């Protein structure tokens, strides 16, 4: 097993560091609009992959940069964060898709709560592997690792939905609408739920009392599954607003604590 020390580095002037996430959001959104405008004017389908990629990644990436850049030091090394975003997204979506497919064939219908259970568990594969191989993972890094894994999952899933909208409806407007809706909702979905669960999981190795720490991690996972199931299972705007408020508020609280600790 290996370990790492949190990196204490100057992250630039306080104002630049504080608003770096805003730069990612503005530049990413501007790039998306530029590609969309070019695609409409030229009618060149070669721009579609770039459009779908940017429409899927900008908002989750903004949340990840916000999570990383708030403290005086980087609680998780950039290499591990990048690895988690990529591997967590690929492994999470493949594992979730395979389990959902197999379960659907056995049961004939897949309850939304089971979808939530499968996807929330799949997103924990890479963070759990990292927690095992890092001797003493830094607890404040947990929420960052969780956000990175959720970001990778949300990005690839949104890309899939965008591509499906193109195939099923054959309309650029449908693709744009799908990307916009899922981008706006991503901070209240996979990004928040995985961030909450992993933040609790990464406190277990360094906890003075393992029992309560394990119980908190289990409760966080159950809460994530229930929020996920409620989001998918109810076609109700009030319920979606409640779930979004709970998810985003909890994530912001954990980020603030992590920034203070770091």
Q: Could you explain the architecture of this structure?
A:
Helix 4 (78-107) packs across helix 7 (141-169), helix 7 (141-169) packs antiparallel against helix 8 and helix 7 runs antiparallel to helix 9 (190-201). The protein has helices at 14-18, 20-42, 48-68, 78-107, 112-122, 125-133, 141-169, 172-185, 190-201, 210-233, 237-261. Mean pLDDT is 86; it is low at 7-12. The protein is built from 11 helices and no strands. The chain is mostly helical.
In short:
The protein has helices at 14-18, 20-42, 48-68, 78-107, 112-122, 125-133, 141-169, 172-185, 190-201, 210-233, 237-261.
Shape: globular
Radius of gyration: 19 Å
Q: What structural category do the secondary elements indicate? A: mainly alpha
Fraction of residues in H or I helices: over 70%
The main sheet comes to: none
Mean pLDDT: 86
What is the ordering of alpha helices and beta strands? HHHHHHHHHHH
Q: So how many helices?
A: 11
Query: What portion of residues belong to β-strands?
Result: under 5%
Uncertain runs? 7-12
